[in-house]
Amino acid sequence: MKLQWTLAIAGLCTLAACQPNGAGPKGSTGNFGAPVATVDGQPIGKDLFEFYVKNLSGKSSSELTPEQRNQALDNLVRAQVIAAQAQKEGLAGEKDTAALIELQRLNILQQALSEKYLKDKQPTEKELRAEYETQVAQMSHQEYHARHILVATEQFADKLVKDLERGAKFEDLARRESMDSSKQNGGDLGWFTPDRMVKPFADAVVALKPGEYTHTPVQTQYGWHIIKLEETRDLAPPTYESVKQRLEQVILARKFRDYVDGLMKTAKVENKLEASAAPAAPAEGSAPAAPAGSK
Fold it and tell me: Which spans in 37-169 are helix H?
């Protein structure tokens, strides 16, 4: 439990950042009820303490042992002391620190709005079944077992293809020449579905028949590949029950995204990024700068 308490301290800065009345010179824990402690006159409220304990342990403070309660409070006190010292040293005003606090604030408010909006919008059985059918229809119904040789240049890949055409063993070339870690297994990638591979690689695999290899090297962001398809097998989709929870998450995420899209349509947004990035125009009548290297 000690590790949990320690790791959770980082979240306290975020809680403070969300308060509408900004922290004073010593830092403020906001309006969180009657104090359970004070640090240099700054209160640590009962509600904050309970929130902290609940998120760490899933229990109220009354369900903890006296030692655990005191340990939790000690962590909050230490966090308040650290935050107050950071304020004294002006760290909250530093650009990177202030940006991090603001991003944390935005993230927490987004999470809070998401939870409120979605509270009464749990997916129905009909929605879940429809999402399942959509996902299954988009899935690959085959798995592929393939090997590959990865090299840095197309010219070298072409040379290896010629070696294969002259009878060289694919596994031997992979062990000797491939840059990929699969070289230790003769380039064996095991079983996979196309969606797990980058598109040029996946497209090449799907176009092969078992036992064939690509006579034209395939380029991806990793380099140049020679791919050999060993075998394929049918892939059964997961059962509805096994993915039901993930389907709920997908649907809820889509509902919130649609809600935010609606908010974006009514928001007045001015994109000034390009304008701020553009170089300033020279003042009227000013002479142009001399070319570099001119005398």
Answer: 46-57, 66-88, 95-118, 125-138, 154-165
* Helices 95-118 + 10-17 axis angle, to 10: 80
Q: What is the pLDDT of residues 188-241, one digit of tens each?
A: 999 999 999 999 999 999 999 999 999 999 999 999 999 999 999 999 999 999
C-beta of residue 218 within 8 angstroms of C-beta of residue 224: yes
Q: What share of the chain is helix, strand, coil (3-state, %, to 5)?
A: 55, 15, 30
| Angle between helix 46-57 and helix 10-17 axes, rounded to 10 deg | 130
Comma-separated ranges of CATH 3.10.50.40 domains in the chain: 140-234
Residue 2 confidence class, pLDDT cut points 50, 70, 90: very low
Tokens of 182: 């699969």
pLDDT at 288: 43
Backbone angles phi, psi at 169, to 5 degrees: -80, 135
In the CATH scheme, what is the code of domain 140-234?
3.10.50.40
Q: Share the mean pLDDT of the chain.
A: 87
Residues 286 and 123: their CA atoms lie apart, in Å, by: 65
Using only the alpha carbons of the chain, give its radius of gyration. 30
